[in-house]
Amino acid sequence: MSADYVVNGKVAVITLNNPPVNGLGLATRTAAVEAVNRAQADDAVEAIVITGAGKAFSGGADIKEFNSPKALTEPTLHTLISVVEASTKPTIAAIHSVCMGGGLELALGCNYRVALPGAQIALPEVKLGLLPGAGGTQRLPRLIGLERALNMVVSGAFVPSEQLADTPLFDKLFAADAQLIAEAVAYAESVAAVRPLPKVRDRKVDYPNHEAFLQFTRNTVKAMAGPYPAPLECVETVAASVTRKFDDGLKFERERFLHLAQTSESKALRHAFFAERSASKLPDVPADTPVRSIKQAAIVGAGTMGGGIAMNFANAGIPVILLETRQEALDKGMATIRKNYENTMKKGKLTQEKFDQRVGLISGTLQYEDIGQADIVIEAVFEEMGVKQAVFEQLDRVMKPGAILASNTSTLDLDRIAAFTQRPQDVVGTHFFSPANVMKLLEIVRGKHTAKDVLATTLALSKKLKKTGVVSGVCDGFIGNRMIEQYSRQAGFLLEEGCLPEQVDKAVEKFGFAMGPFRMGDLAGNDIGWAIRKRRYVEKPAIVYSKTADLLCEMGRYGQKTGAGWYDYKPGDRKAYPNAAVNAMIVQHSVDIGVERRKISDEEIVERLVYSLVNEGAHILEEGIAMRASDIDMVYLTGYGFPVFRGGPMFYADTVGLYKVKAAIERYAKGRHGDAWTPAPLLVKLVAEGKRFNE
Questions:
Q1: Residues near 347 by beta carbon (within 8 Å), at least 6 away in sequence
Q2: Could you please report the per-residue DSSP string of 31-78?
């Protein structure tokens, strides 16, 4: 059973019991309907209280059932709510902690609602590209008014229960320390004899001149919704609570819900939702694996990356020591951190108290011995193996037994780094993305000898730092940078063949990327890619790159930090301004290598950039570097600005159809630098079997 039933005096108490958030899956719905019917049939029961076990009333429908037979198997959520609403005995929702989505819709079907302060009240379906599909758009406006209901449904944001105390949503808000069940039972006894039973459906939505307000809302939401259809659909369904009879509004809501559930945008958002949760699960690292205590952290290197990583720990309330070799570098790093926090405070996103607390958690030193007692140390120095070796040999000498030794390397061989120590089992990769205090992705690199408890600890730490941790195996570039190298190669070839940076960037940004490859290069620093290519020329001379990026760096144009990269930048202005000299260099380079420039369509630009990611991703999956296709998608959604509404490169390929992707790759394989387009064996295999990356 996933709903418990007890009788307390003359009141039946039904407790939804489906951890962790009492999701309203088929088993829970079935048990709840049976419990309501049982209470109806018991002459000794005069009222019914519905609540949730543990830390939630209910988090809503079980989205794992979307687009599956279970979602439509009786009793559906609609049926459960209808049974509750049709009860001849008063039903009281006793709300605490979390009451969202279908959970709130269930509560709205009850005759009365009582709650504790601090409960999170929300209809968050829009965040999954959907709208509330079990009466929420029709009942909520009848209790809190049209405007407030629209704000909640369109934003999906939660509202603390006490902020809704002035509305008929709650018939009673108890004190924070109240015993919810006891108070709810007492309330149920007080209304047990009241007739007629109040029903939300019988209330009217009264909003003067609603036509003008709704049109204003449509215009506003349309301008802000971008590629997502759900927000505007939310407006239309909530509008039906005013313009249509209740049952007609319910029917319209259901039609629009089913329509949205089939859109590629909603499927992509739901894929991302599950992908984020799957990323932290490793088959050979059980959920109950013991984790090491992380109460003190240390960072080696106080540069941009080291300082950003330190801020993550301070934001999570973990003291952190920054280690530098020179006082000047340490002072500069500490000053940058302070300035970043000051800027956040000026924007009103940080209080003075929090500012003082976070700055106070970060200290600096010039001595390795001062960091020896840290539970984790993260190296964030220059991306060069000799430099890493010197650092890890020192860390091996000074760090206490059991400390985690982590490297922020973005491309280098973690197993070689681990071999510089006598404790390779304690070494792990923690590849943060710049700016480290902002970007959500944390690529966790699992070395050949990395201990399971180190992995479990690092994954748990990623959550504490509010990062999405994705585990990668060891290879050059891991998941993200290995794939972006192929993307960047194609971007360079496009320049040689006829494009200019602005056209490439605009095409891929129109597709939905946060920024194109050349703006991204300017932001990250073109000299970083230059250093990697120099290493590639020695280690992998067979790989061909466009020389345009090297020529750019030889001009001293490293990007935003120098005010000049592929584009020009003005002080205090991040807008990219095309540069005539750079464009002339690109055109001249085509002449120098004997390539006749041609007109290239935006479609070709997008295909070549995105499918290069997909093909390399297939290699990474086949080699076991990434555990699942959805892990690759999470890397690109959270670290590389891939459009969320397209679900990540591997999900996008599934959406387009792998047969079409393979056909395009084979077409490009016949063109210039066709050797870069050999279809990955896994892609060929999946096409032959009629399967997808994300099965």
A1: none
A2: HHHHHHHHHHH-TT--EEEEEESTT-SB--S-GGGTTSHHHHSSSPHH
Instruction: For residues 613 and 487, give the distance between their C-alpha atoms in angstroms, rounded to a whole number.
Output: 6
- What DSSP line would sit under 341-363, residue for residue? HHHHHHTTSS-HHHHHHHHHTEE
In sequence order, which residues have a C-beta less than 8 Å from that of residue 266 and are 6 or more positions away? 128, 129, 130, 230, 260
pTM: 0.93
Closest CA to 122 of 154, 148, 93, 156: 156
Residues 49 and 14 sit within 8 Å (Cβ to Cβ): yes
**Average pLDDT over every residue of 558-573:** 93
Which among 183, 185, 164, 186 has a CA at the least distance from the CA of 175? Answer: 183
Asked if residue 546 lies in contact with residue 489, where contact means CB atoms within 8 angstroms, the answer is yes
Question: Does the annotation mark 125 as catalytic?
Answer: yes
Q: Which helix (H) or strand (E) holds 410?
A: none
**Rounded CA separation 498/504 (Å):** 10
Give Cα separations from 136 to 13, 29, 106, 214 (angstroms).
Answer: 24, 17, 9, 18
Q: What are phi and psi for residue 577, nearest 5 degrees?
A: -110, 120
Q: Within a 10 A sphere around the Cβ of 574, how many other Cβ atoms? A: 10
Catalytic residue among 46, 65, 85, 125: 125
The contacts of residue 45 (CB under 8 Å, 6+ apart) are: 7, 10, 11, 12, 39, 89
Q: Would you say the C-alpha torsion 565, 569, 574, 579 has a positive or negative sign? A: negative
Instruction: Pick the closest to residue 63 from 231, 254, 332, 272 (CA basis).
Output: 272
Torsion over CA: 124, 130, 135, 139 (sign): positive
pLDDT of residue 1: 62
Say what the pLDDT of residue 241 is.
97
Phi first, then psi: what are they for 404, rounded to 5°?
-85, 125
Note the residue count of the chain.
695
604 among known catalytic residues:
no
| Positive/negative CA dihedral, 519, 525, 527, 531 | negative
Tell me the Cα Rg of the chain: 29
Question: 404, 402, 397: which is closest to 298 by C-alpha?
Answer: 404
What stretch of H or E contains 134? none
Cβ pair 310, 299 in contact under 8 A: yes
DSSP 524-578: H-HHHHHHHHHHHHHH-TTS---SHHHHHHHTT--BGGGTBSSEEEETTEEEEEE
Any idea what DSSP says for residue 333? H
Sheet of 172-173: strand order equals 3-8, 11-16, 47-52, 91-95, 112-115, 172-173
- pLDDT higher than threshold 90 for residue 506: yes
User: What's the rounded Cα separation, in Å, for the pair 380 and 364?
Assistant: 15
Strand blocks (E) in 280-356: 297-300, 320-323
Instruction: Tell me the one-letter amino acid at 496.
Output: E
pLDDT digits (tens, 9 = 90+) for 119-175: 999 999 999 999 999 999 999 999 999 999 999 999 999 999 999 999 999 999 999
Q: Kindly state the tokens that stand for 25.
A: 């899956």
Q: Look at residues 166, 184, 162, 159 and name the one whose alpha carbon lies nearest to residue 50.
A: 184
pLDDT in tens, 211-220: 999 999 999 9
Estimate to the nearest angstrom the gap between the alpha carbon of 218 and the chain centroid: 27
Q: How many Cβ atoms are within 10 Å of 339's Cβ, its own excluded? A: 11
Per-position DSSP letters for 653-664, written without gaps between them: HHHH-HHHHHHH
Kindly report, residue by residue over 622-670, the tens digit of the pLDDT.
Answer: 999 999 999 999 999 999 999 999 999 999 999 999 999 999 999 999 9
